[in-house]
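2024-03-11 09:14:02 INFO worker-7 job=invfold-0412 stage=load source=structure_tokens
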């Protein structure tokens, strides 16, 4: 689909939301400082797949995820680790943003 939205617009949405994700001592989602040619190309592909408003919804949903904001978890061996969502991860392929919208990174209720 043709788009008038630019990779810079997508990066601005990412950075605006990422800047408010640090909490509970976690660093939050990683900001994107600049658009390389590779990032620009991948972001443009994502914008051709879905409009900027859709991505804003997905990034807002991701920003609410403790896991995506660096909450420490344990791997299969019980070793501590924390992962933070990055712009590169988000634009890397056509499935990462879909997984966000499908709820894969939603917080799970504690019992």
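2024-03-11 09:14:09 INFO worker-7 stage=emit residues=111
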């Amino acid at each position: 689909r043709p788009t008038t939205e630019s990779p810079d617009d997508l990066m601005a949405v990412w950075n605006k939301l990422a800047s408010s994700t640090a909490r509970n001592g976690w660093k939050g989602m990683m900001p994107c400082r600049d658009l390389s040619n590779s990032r620009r190309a991948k972001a443009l592909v994502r914008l051709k797949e879905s409009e900027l408003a859709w991505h804003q919804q997905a990034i807002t949903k991701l920003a609410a995820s403790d896991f995506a904001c660096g909450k420490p978890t344990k791997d299969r061996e019980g070793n501590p680790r924390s992962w933070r969502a990055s712009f590169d991860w988000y634009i890397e392929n056509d499935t990462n943003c879909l997984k966000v919208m499908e709820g894969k990174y939603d917080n799970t209720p504690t019992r």
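2024-03-11 09:14:09 INFO worker-7 stage=report msg="The CA atoms of residues 66 and 107 lie 6 Å apart."
2024-03-11 09:14:10 INFO worker-7 job finished
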